[in-house]
Amino acid sequence: MKTNIEERACDLAIYIIETKATVRSAAKKFGISKSTVHKDLSERLESINRPLYLQVKKVLEQNKAERHIRGGLATRMKYKGV
């Protein structure tokens, strides 16, 4: 998926805001690395579209606060054989 970097950053932000997706799932959906998603959203997007950046920042902070819960649930499912 080769596109303009600014366009990709905006598309990533909109996808994450609409679906409340994690960085990992967004990277998988767009076929890019997690570090590229982070760079697009935390560095590039701020200078491209500040209001969009502030919205996506809230979602990313919420995901970061909840990641220990998701990790625990994944481990539980792994060992229960679900």
Give the secondary structure arrangement, pairings included:
Layout (H helix, E strand, L loop, with lengths): L4 H15 L3 H8 L3 H15 L1 H31 L2
Helix pairs in contact: 1-3, 1-4, 2-3, 3-4
Q: Can you tell me about this structure?
A:
The chain is mainly alpha-helical. It has one domain (5-80). Helix content is 84%, strand content 0%. The chain has four helices and no strands. It is elongated.
Quick tags:
0% strand, 82 residues, single chain, mainly alpha
Q: Concise description?
A:
The chain has 82 residues and is mostly helical.
Q: Which structural class is indicated by helix and strand composition?
A: mainly alpha
Mean pLDDT over all positions: 90
Number of structural domains: 1
* Element order: H for helix, E for strand: HHHH
